[in-house]
From TrEMBL:
InterPro entries for the chain: ArchSynthase1/Queuine_TRR, TGT, TGT-like_sf, tRNA_ribo_trans-like
Reaction catalysed by this enzyme: 7-aminomethyl-7-carbaguanine + guanosine(34) in tRNA = 7-aminomethyl-7-carbaguanosine(34) in tRNA + guanine
First-level EC class: transferase
Active site: 89 (proton acceptor), 271 (nucleophile)
Gene, per the UniProt record: tgt
Name of the featured protein: Queuine tRNA-ribosyltransferase
Residues the record lists as binding substrate: 89-93, 143, 194, 221
The protein's required cofactors: Zn(2+)
Amino acid sequence: MYEIIRRDGLAKRGRLHTVHGVVETPVFMNVGTAAAIKGAVATTDLQEIKTQVQLSNTYHLHVRPGDEVVNKLGGLHKFMVWDKPILTDSGGFQVFSLAGLRKIKEEGVYFNSHIDGRKIFMGPEESMRIQSNLASTIAMAFDECPSSVASREYIEASVERTTRWLVRCQEEMKRLNSLPETINRQQMLFGINQGGILEDIRVDHAKEISKLDLDGYAVGGLAVGESHEDMYRILDAVVPHLPVNKPTYLMGVGTPINILEAVDRGVDFFDCVYPSRNGRHGHVYTNHGKLNLFNAKFELDTRPIEEGCQCPACRTYSRAYIRHLLKAKEMLGMRLAVLHNLYFYNNMMEEIREAIENGNYAEYKAKKIADMTEKTC
């Protein structure tokens, strides 16, 4: 069940009740593709850095170690020792990202594994079965993410097929949730809106999938090469046509400013690899801009990454020390930078929720963006 606690313009302060606990929204989901966040971050760390939801990838876990292996070990929660919600994406994005290794047909998609080249088939039913084996809290519907530069004709056909696949996903999940051997018989299903950067196709698709009364709705196929302006334009067009009484999830987005702008447009779920990927390369977020810790000016800097930050890195270590670790290729440097970035994102979401509750989100957003673009660190 999803409830809206407060609205401030289009921004929503909500609460999603799940079998694995309550999610306070807006929320950023920390990305652990293969059931672990890159950068040597353990689930015990996630508790400390305010993580509410962990996201894992259906395709990658199907390939290795195998969803049936995870199922035999009690599902993802027991496997990775995490008792809060987990969202699994459907494998549909690999249809987009593994373009050279796949063939799309009505029944589903034929892949060659990026690991060993073996042939894999995944369709709506297979995706639901894999995600049921993983026993995640929220499963994503299987879809195709068409390229934003694809022709109108291709995008129209792709979106129509994604709708048909969504119906099949819903039917298969209902069947799986009725089986006594299913680990999580209260698994939720989110559908995905597609349509490239073509507003009319996006809006029509949003209206069509809204009829299915799903547990939540995602906007997919953005942050894949289009401009920020196109992203915001599509959100302006699409979000008003998705059910306001269900969570809205913008997949794969994004920078702190992207998140602030999307919240203002009614989005309340986010995920992105940026904080962990950038952290592993020495790029860390602060309230006064992003820092590159490899810069020589930090060699003797005894300050924490950000004054006043309560993350595990900032409470103890200096910029100079973390810079040294990164340059020496010590894993601890990457780990500390990733922990800081994830804490920064999760803490920002906490601030966003508070600002919406207080009815001053517009002021908060304006100040936050102004501060982060100052570059005074």
